[in-house]
Amino acid sequence: MKKNLLVTGGAGFIGSNFVPYFLTKYPEYNLINLDKLTYAGNLSNLAEITANDRYKFIQGDICDRKLIEKIFEDDEINGVIHFAAESHVDNSISGPGEFIRTNVNGTFTLIDVARLAWKGTQNRFHHISTDEVYGSLGETGLFTETTPYAPNSPYSASKASSDLIVRAYHHTYGMNVVTTNCSNNYGPKQHNEKLIPTIIRKALTGEKIPVYGDGKNIRDWLYVEDHCTGIDLAFHKGRSGETYNIGGRNEKVNIDIVKGICQILDEKKPRSDKRSYSEQISFVTDRPGHDRRYAIDATKIENELGWKAKENFESGILKTIHWYLQNAGNK
Ligand SMILES: NC(=O)c1ccc[n+]([C@@H]2O[C@H](COP(=O)([O-])OP(=O)(O)OC[C@H]3O[C@@H](n4cnc5c(N)ncnc54)[C@H](O)[C@@H]3O)[C@@H](O)[C@H]2O)c1
Fold it and tell me: Which of 17, 263, 267, 322 has its Cβ near the most Cβ atoms within 10 Å?
């Protein structure tokens, strides 16, 4: 049987790393990328596969039920990997409505069309989510798959809602679903608005490098290619109805990341005045409700599916900075 995979949000950061990886690795799949191309979507990040005859791009909205029904019918979709979302926490604070529309209503529309189109078959629906659904950690402890949901921002609340819809479709309709919750991704092709691209860009353009609050918030960083291999494993081998946490075991304090990137840039692309980029660091008012610490326990996906992150933060950040230096001016 032909394998026709619908990927949503494939023009975003993680999607545009995943689509070329998956197409190259699996010649038996056709891949249809549905993306609305919001400000966060960038087709030039997919230039390497645009001419591949197993790849098709459709510009459209995951909330557009008629369009999704047509795609399922025309392209005989028999697998979904759902990345599309509004993903930036700051935007969810200034304008939560779009987060509820895309992340909650969009996920509902997509999985409901899949349910009706697939009529009880065991095609897989893979939902991509975040560790932010678990809320904030104290100084110790890790998020596991059984940590209670306690989202704090409109973004994480909308993702938590979508996770629960997907869960309910497994329990109620017996759909073959899997959900992966991952920590902060970094790597090539990430939108400028996110922390690491912001640090690199502002440093290189000579602007102030903004750091929220006291800079002591902790995130657990995952190199985007390691995330792609985790999704691949969970999609193909994960147990139906299960969730898997994906995290790189790379807890870092924000200010250390900023200083570390400045140090690498001092070496790779010194300022013309030979002073350190770290002189551009500027502390700004903290984000409201800013979660203090996230850290993921990835034992389940490691033990059950044999996943392991290849990159530690030190190797991944070097690759990332190298990419940004090569692609300066990129979105
Ligand atoms: N980036 C991270 O660190 C991270 C961490 C954990 C989970 N996630 C999750 O991974 C997924 C992908 O994240 P990302 O960082 O690549 O996001 P992104 O913002 O870079 O990309 C999102 C993509 O979705 C598309 N999109 C948005 N609304 C749409 C709609 N209504 N219909 C169709 N397409 C739409 C955008 O055009 C864009 O191409 C999201 O579900 C996000 O919640 C991301």
Answer: 17
